Amino acid sequence: MSERADELVLVINSGSSSIKYQLLDPESGVVAASGLVERIGEERGSVEHRADGRRIEHEGPIPDHKAGLRLVFDMFADTGHDLAAAGVRAVGHRVVHGGEIFYEPTLITDDVVAAISELSTLAPLHNPANVTGIESTRELLPGVPQVAVFDTAFFHGLPEAAKTYAIDAKVAAAHGIRKYGFHGTSHEYVAGQVAEFLDRAPDRTNQIIFHLGNGASASAVRGGDPADTTMGLTPLEGLVMGTRGGDLDPGILLHLMRSAGLDADAIDRLLNRNSGIKGLSGVNDFRELQRLIDAGDESARLAYDVYIHRLRRYLGAYLVELGRVDAITFTAGVGENSPAVRADALAGLENFGITVDPARNTAKERGARYISPAGAKVPVLVVPTNEELAIARAASRVVAEHGGRSNSVESGGR
Ligand code: ADP
């Protein structure tokens, strides 16, 4: 490898039983190594590590995150990146919920870890896992600066009218209830890429972005600032997703509590794991959904139709909110790879100046590209997201601002 380890950033996305990671150059975006630890705490865990065109696998019990990261660091060493010895410039951690406290990439200190942990009441599925990942990495790479990059950060600046839920204001204030929004790292990165692609000043560009992966969200961005987004206090609100249903009448939950006797845990499982595409069709992966539709499965067809219907509802809302739209962009797994979703989401909108060119939409290209016809009033784009690169750049920037020190700086609520 030609790159020096101490110029690279390790990006870690730690889930409750998994760790996704990438070692990359924050300048060029070149990935030196990447991988995935899965089924931590279960009988058969696994690590899949890729570096220099090689793929190494490990199978066996992985009791906890620290054990998983130890295995990963051994694999790094085996593939020419001895992180503990050579050091890395920084570790960037994806953290799901920053609450009201964190809205910028933040150098991690003991106080920051404690505050992220306290925010677990707002994100019980995510923040504890993020904290475990952070603590394990700090123990294994002492002295390396670590930076938390929050999924909610970009949406901190949502207008009051967009982020306020119309419930008793005292209850909302007491419990931190407001729209926080998620996938912010992706929406912000893609918004920047779109402005660059269109060669427009970001602060004069209005855009609608659909981030359609396993989780899915849309955003309206006005002149580089967030105007609205579909996810809310939690990632449950908004679009239909792989296993989450997005918007619901809250009365459904009261009905289920009273009539079916469901408690908070049962409702949590229903809303987070057994709803959305999976709840309607039995599968959560979009490729499988498309195979079922092709085979004539009616529940899969309905799931797809509900998915598209919801996308179009928010498209309409955001067109009106923004008034003038300079780009509509699709990103993430489904957004980047499903021409059918893109075409169906925007079908019949010629009167609004919105059209998709069938040949461009189905072309086997990668990278940022137009899918609207040449000269269209509203450019429609596909732009690949790259949350790891955005996190690596943010981490690198924070380290530069703090002169490369690790634990000596108070974060002061940044
Ligand atoms: P995550 O939210 O986990 O980061 P991704 O952005 O990777 O997820 O998106 C995963 C989704 O993208 C899955 O539903 C997968 O089926 C879908 N996807 C990936 N490739 C394709 C494809 N070629 N056509 C349709 N859907 C795809």
Automatic annotation (TrEMBL):
EC number(s) stated in the UniProt entry for this protein: 2.7.2.1
User: Which pathway?
Assistant: Metabolic intermediate biosynthesis; acetyl-CoA biosynthesis; acetyl-CoA from acetate: step 1/2
Q: Tell me the residue numbers annotated for binding substrate.
A: 94
A single Pfam family it belongs to is Acetate_kinase
GO molecular function: any one?
acetate kinase activity
Essential cofactor(s): Mg(2+); Mn(2+)
Bound cofactor: record note: Mg(2+). Can also accept Mn(2+).
Q: Does the keyword Metal-binding apply?
A: yes
Cross-referenced Gene3D superfamilies, in alphabetical order?
3.30.420.40
Q: Where in the cell is it found?
A: Cytoplasm
- Which amino acid positions bind Mg(2+), per UniProt? 13, 387
**Chain positions of site Transition state stabilizer:** 183, 244
Record: active site? 151 (proton donor/acceptor)
Sequence positions that bind ATP: 20, 211-215, 285-287, 333-337
Broad EC category: transferase
So which domain of life are we looking at? Bacteria
The chemistry this enzyme catalyses reads: acetate + ATP = acetyl phosphate + ADP
Q: InterPro entries, from UniProt?
A: Ac/propionate_kinase, Aliphatic_acid_kin_short-chain, Aliphatic_acid_kinase_CS, ATPase_NBD
Keyword match Amino-acid biosynthesis = no
Q: Kindly report the protein's main subcellular placement as a broad class.
A: cytoplasm
Query: Main role?
Result: Catalyzes the formation of acetyl phosphate from acetate and ATP. Can also catalyze the reverse reaction.
NCBIfam families, alphabetically? Answer: ackA (TIGR00016)
Quaternary structure note: Homodimer.
Q: What family is this protein classified in?
A: Belongs to the acetokinase family.
The protein's name in its UniProt record: Acetate kinase
Whose protein is this, by species? Nocardia aurea
**Which gene name belongs to this protein?**
ackA
